C-alpha cells in the first residue's frame, strides 16, 4: 500500500447507509494501533446499496481526508465493506482423491475448487469462500489438512455471493475517490473480527450487526462461520417511525433517537419528558419520553423477531451456546440488550471493538465495529493483490473469482 509508512498502514472503509467511516490502523508487532478516524454522513446509499455514485464519492472523500489528517498519511488503498439485501450466503462441499496419499497445497486448492463448482447466476459474484472444516477419510473436524495422510479429502465451505452491480458500484465509488480497493469484505465478517472473541466463535455465537439500513447476521460454531444473511431493516426505520409518530422532521427525529431513545418502555420513568421540534414553523412540543419508547419498542422487537426467525431457519439456534452479540450504530439505544434477551432467550451483550491499541477510547463504540473489523481483516489478508481500477477491467471479468482462490492460499497461513 502506498502510504507514508508503507508496509504497516491498513485502512478500513465502512460504506454504510447512514455514515461512511474510514479507519486507519498501524500494524505493529504487538497488534493493531488505530491512528486515524474520519466519518462523514452518507448520502448516496439506501439499505446498504449505492444508489447515487456522486454523493457516495463526495462522502468517501470527506471521510478519507479527515482520517488522513488525523493519521498524518496519504490513503491510497482501502478494504471496503459490502452489505445489502442482495447478499446471499450458503454452505457447499467438495470431494477429491488425494494424489500422493499426502495432502498438498495443490490438493487443498483442488478441493476448494470442487466445493465452489456450483451454478451461480451471471448477475452474481463470489465475495468470500470461507472454509469451515476438512474431512480426510471420514475423520472430520480438521482445520489444517496439509501434510496429513489419506485417500479422500472433503472440504466444507461457506460461500458468500453478492450482486455484481452492487460490488462494482462500491469499487467504482472508491476509484472515483482516487482509492484502490484492496478487497471487498462482507460487513458482518469484518465486525466479527473486531467484537467476537475466539472462545465465543468456538462455543457458538450469533453476531447481529444493526446498522442504519441493514441488519447483518453471522453465526459462528466451532470457530468457523456457518451462516450469513442480511435483512433490509435497520436504524433508519426507527428514525422514520419517530418522525411520523411525533410529527417531527427526520433530522430532528434522528437527534431525538440518539439523545432520548430507549426501546424498552419499562426502563423509562413516568414523569420523564422530551422537547420535540414541530414541522412548518410551529412551536416545539413537550411530550412524555414514555411515548418515544412506545414508538421504538415495537420496531426493535420486530427486528429481533426477524433475526430470531433467521436463526431458527438456519438450523443452528440450539448450537449458539455463548449467546448473541449485538453491534452496529443502532445498538447504542438504551434497553437494546435487555429486549434482545427477552426475544432470543439467550445471553446478549453489546459488542465493541476489542484487542486493539491507539485511539481506543475514540473507537470504543458499536458504531466503529465494522470499520475496525475491516482493518483487522486487512491485517490478516495483507498479501492479497489490490483490485484493478474499474477502467482496467472488463465489466464481467472473473477477477473476484481469481482473487478468491488466491485468497484461499493465504487462508492457511493466516487463519489456521
Write structural notes for this entry.
This protein is of the alpha/beta class. It folds into three domains: 6-85 and 164-195 and 354-393, Nucleotidyltransferase, domain 5, CATH 3.30.420.40; 88-162, Dna Ligase, domain 1 (2-Layer Sandwich); 198-351, ATPase, nucleotide binding domain (Nucleotidyltransferase, domain 5). It has helices at 53-71, 105-116, 164-176, 187-195, 198-203, 235-245, 250-260, 289-314, 336-344, 360-363, 369-380, 399-414; strands at 9-15, 19-27, 32-41, 45-46, 49-50, 77-82, 88-97, 124-136, 139-142, 152-163, 180-186, 205-210, 215-221, 224-231, 273-276, 285-288, 324-327, 348-350, 357-358. The strands form five sheets. It has a six-stranded mixed beta sheet, sandwiched between helices. Helix 4 (187-195) packs across helix 11 (369-380) and helix 6 crosses helix 7 (250-260). The relative contact order is 0.16. Mean pLDDT is 90; it is low at 1-6 and 388-397.
Sum this structure up briefly:
The chain is built from twelve helices and 19 strands. With 416 residues, it is an alpha/beta fold. It has three domains: 6-85 and 164-195 and 354-393, Nucleotidyltransferase, domain 5 (2-Layer Sandwich); 88-162, 2-Layer Sandwich (Dna Ligase, domain 1), CATH 3.30.1490.110; 198-351, Nucleotidyltransferase, domain 5.
Amino acid at each position: 500500500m502506498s502510504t507514508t509508512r508503507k508496509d504497516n498502514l491498513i485502512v478500513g472503509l465502512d460504506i454504510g447507509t447512514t455514515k461512511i467511516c474510514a479507519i486507519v490502523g498501524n500494524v505493529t508487532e504487538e497488534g493493531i494501533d488505530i491512528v486515524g478516524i474520519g466519518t462523514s454522513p452518507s448520502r448516496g446509499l439506501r439499505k446498504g446499496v449505492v444508489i447515487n455514485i456522486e454523493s457516495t464519492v463526495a462522502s468517501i472523500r470527506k471521510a478519507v481526508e479527515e482520517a488522513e489528517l488525523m493519521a498524518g498519511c496519504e490513503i491510497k488503498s482501502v478494504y471496503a465493506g459490502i452489505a445489502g439485501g442482495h447478499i446471499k450466503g450458503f454452505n457447499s462441499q467438495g470431494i477429491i482423491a488425494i494424489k500422493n496419499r499426502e495432502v498438498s497445497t495443490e490438493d487443498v486448492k483442488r478441493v476448494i475448487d470442487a466445493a465452489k463448482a456450483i451454478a451461480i447466476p451471471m448477475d452474481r459474484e463470489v465475495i468470500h469462500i470461507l472454509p469451515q472444516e476438512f474431512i480426510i477419510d471420514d475423520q472430520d473436524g480438521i482445520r489444517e489438512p496439509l501434510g496429513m495422510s489419506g485417500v479422500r479429502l472433503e472440504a466444507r465451505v461457506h460461500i458468500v455471493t453478492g450482486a455484481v452491480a452492487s460490488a462494482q458500484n462500491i469499487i467504482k465509488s472508491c476509484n472515483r475517490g482516487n482509492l484502490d480497493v484492496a478487497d471487498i469484505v462482507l460487513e458482518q465478517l469484518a465486525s466479527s473480527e473486531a467484537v467476537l472473541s475466539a472462545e465465543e466463535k468456538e462455543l457458538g455465537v450469533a453476531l447481529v450487526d444493526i446498522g442504519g439500513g441493514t441488519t447483518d447476521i453471522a453465526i459462528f460454531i466451532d470457530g468457523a462461520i456457518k451462516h450469513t444473511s442480511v435483512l433490509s431493516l435497520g436504524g433508519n426505520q426507527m428514525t422514520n417511525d419517530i418522525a411520523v409518530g411525533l410529527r417531527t422532521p427526520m433530522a430532528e427525529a434522528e437527534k431525538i433517537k440518539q439523545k432520548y431513545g430507549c426501546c424498552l418502555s419499562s426502563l423509562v420513568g413516568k414523569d420523564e419528558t422530551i422537547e420535540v421540534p414541530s414541522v412548518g414553523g410551529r412551536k416545539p412540543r413537550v411530550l412524555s419520553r414514555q411515548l418515544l419508547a412506545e414508538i421504538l419498542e415495537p420496531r426493535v422487537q420486530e427486528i429481533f423477531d426477524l433475526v430470531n426467525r433467521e436463526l431458527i431457519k438456519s438450523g443452528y439456534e440450539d448450537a449458539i451456546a455463548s449467546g448473541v452479540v449485538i453491534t452496529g450504530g443502532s445498538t447504542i439505544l438504551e434497553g437494546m440488550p435487555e429486549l434482545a434477551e427477552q426475544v432470543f432467550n439467550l445471553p446478549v451483550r453489546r459488542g465493541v471493538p476489542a484487542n486493539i491499541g491507539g485511539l481506543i477510547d475514540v473507537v470504543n463504540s458499536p458504531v466503529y465495529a465494522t470499520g475496525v473489523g475491516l482493518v483487522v481483516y486487512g491485517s490478516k489478508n495483507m498479501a492479497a493483490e489490490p483490485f484493478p481500477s474499474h477502467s482496467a477491467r472488463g465489466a464481467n471479468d472473473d477477477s473476484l473469482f481469481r482473487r478468491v482462490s488466491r485468497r484461499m492460499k493465504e487462508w492457511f497461513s493466516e487463519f489456521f
